[in-house]
Design goal:
The protein is of the alpha+beta class and 448 residues long. 49% of the residues lie in helices and 7% in strands. α19 crosses α20.
Length: 448
């Protein structure tokens, strides 16, 4: 719309069809171009009155019936700036201050310094012309680690958790948690609880309370600040599916493709030219420009309509293929479906379906979903029926959620349980699905 002022948004008042029928084409060749010399065209003559087209002066280019929705964005302070502001309250000499500001720049979004002291020392010398010692950098780092949020400036997870525990009010549970992290961090991460109970000569309840203190800590202290200041990317769904009287109804989101029509003002220019008895060269030049813009606008409108039709046909086929899921919201009702299934059904190329599936979202009664998530491979159950791998993953997820966390189920046991439920799956397939669901191994799911 910015490139072609003959293209406007909103509801169309008049059609351009009559102008195509009435317009005299005697002065144009077979390709619609006027037979005149290019040197005779004076663009300023017919553009001078249209420097600021009406569409650029409108508040929006959507239909008047559309609700105006604008999302305000607040400009915030970055995490690095937040830490720099705190440094101004810490007493440091001039050299220490330069080292501190440089070191803060090495802190990532999670709040960690991922670089070694030796690397920071070299960078200070080469890039800042500051020659110091590792001991001085360590001292400055201690000052950085006193900043908020607690745990910032740590070099690994263990140090991050220790920094946070040291700021807590001392209690028996906090002291035990500190001892565990300082002396038996490896046993703690591997959940060797029996070894910890024996090592510290404590009860199971005392260990549970100490672990509870650790679990309340933030492993990514910078994350809390980053989340609150991050620019949010809002997903505007391309389709909307609603259940009305027990039936599915699909609609295309008009916000992604507002109504378009050919500018009435430009159409009237053609009409005025047709009715003029004496046609000057400048008028002929202007009408050539106008006709080119009108042709481009009509072509673009037709292309958008064709795109909308393709989207609706494809999504409609997907919706009815997965009708049972869209009516219930139960992922176990998802049928096995690949791109070729839909392509064959609508008579289009697989690549066309792929473009719709990979980049489009649909608003359903169960949330906004990426369309490609409805596609899945199939697997045969013990009844000889094809079931979706999504269905199997959902059953696996539910089985793990219901397990005894004191004795989590191994992959072998999970494979046996799913086999009993009618899904004969190998242990390695269970492991693959578990990793895709971001569920850790049995040992890491153990609780006391």
């Amino acid at each position: 719309m910015e490139e072609n002022p003959a293209l406007e948004g909103g509801k169309e008042e008049d059609s351009l069809d009559s102008f195509d029928e009435d317009f005299d084409n005697d002065n144009y060749d077979d390709e619609g171009s006027e037979i005149i010399e290019a040197d005779d065209i004076n663009i300023d003559d017919y553009l001078s009155d249209d420097d600021i087209p009406e569409y650029k002066l409108q508040a929006n280019n959507y239909s008047a019936d559309d609700e105006e929705k604008q999302i305000p964005y607040a400009a915030g302070t970055s995490f690095t700036e937040y830490l720099h502001n705190q440094l101004s309250t810490v007493y440091l000499d001039s050299e220490e201050e330069e080292i501190a500001y440089f070191s803060v720049g090495s802190i990532d979004e999670s709040g960690y310094i991922r670089r070694s002291i030796a690397d920071i020392l070299d960078d200070l010398a080469f890039t800042q012309n500051i020659y110091t010692t590792e001991d001085k950098i360590e001292k400055v780092l201690k000052s950085i680690q006193e900043l908020d949020p607690a745990g910032v400036g740590a070099r690994d997870l263990r140090e991050c958790l220790l920094l946070q525990l040291e700021r807590k009010t001392p209690t028996e549970s906090v002291s035990l948690a500190l001892a565990i992290l300082e002396n038996e961090f490896d046993a703690f991460t591997k959940k060797h609880y029996d070894k910890l109970i024996q090592k510290f000569d404590i009860t199971e309840e005392e260990l549970r309370q100490a672990i509870s203190e650790i679990e309340r800590l933030n492993p990514k202290p910078g994350g809390a600040y980053s989340e609150s200041t991050r620019i949010v990317e809002h997903i505007v769904p391309d389709f909307t599916i609603r259940i009305i009287d027990g039936k599915l109804e699909l609609s295309l989101n008009g916000r992604n493709a507002p109504e378009l029509h050919v500018s009435k003002e430009y159409s009237e220019m053609l009409q005025g030219y047709k009715e003029t008895s004496e046609k000057s060269r400048s008028q002929k030049d202007a009408v050539l420009f106008i006709k080119q813009k009108l042709d481009a606008a009509k072509w673009f409108i037709d292309a958008i309509k064709q795109r909308q039709q393709t989207l609706m046909i494809t999504m409609n086929a997907i919706m009815y293929y997965q009708e049972e899921y869209f009516l219930t919201g139960d992922e176990r009702k998802l049928r096995p479906m690949i791109l070729k299934d839909i392509a064959d059904q609508i008579g289009m190329d697989v690549s066309t379906v792929s473009r719709v599936a990979n980049s489009k979202y649909v608003d359903t009664p169960y949330g906004t979903k990426l369309i490609k998530d409805f596609f899945s491979e199939s697997m045969m159950n013990d009844q000889g029926e094809e079931v979706s791998t999504r269905e199997i993953k959902k059953i696996l997820e539910i089985t793990i959620a219901e397990e005894d966390k004191r004795k989590p189920l191994t992959d072998d046991k999970l494979a046996m349980i799913l086999k009993e439920k009618g899904y004969p799956i190998a242990r390695r397939t269970i492991a693959k699905y578990r990793e895709q669901l971001d569920i850790p191994v049995a040992r890491m799911r153990k609780e006391i």
